[in-house]
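Give me C-alpha cells for this 75-residue protein.
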Amino acid sequence: MAWPFAHRAFLSPREQGDFLLCVSAPIAVAYWDWRGLRIVLGKVLRLRTASLSAWLFLLGLIMLSFVREGRRRLS
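Here you go.
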C-alpha cells in the first residue's frame, strides 16, 4: 500500500488512487481482510481522485468474491 506514495514524483494522485483500488484492495478482498480493505478505501477517499473504472473494477471483484464464497459453501 505504501508503493504509490513512495513513488509520488512519478504518479499523479489519480494514478495513486487507481493503484490502491486495483492492486492493494484486491489483495485484501482475496484474503477476506475487511479491516485492511477499509484502510485502503479510507486512503483512496482522502485522495478523492480515483477513476470510476477503478471503483467499478473493485466493486465487481467484491461481488465475484461473494458469489464464489457462496458457491463454495453450497458445495
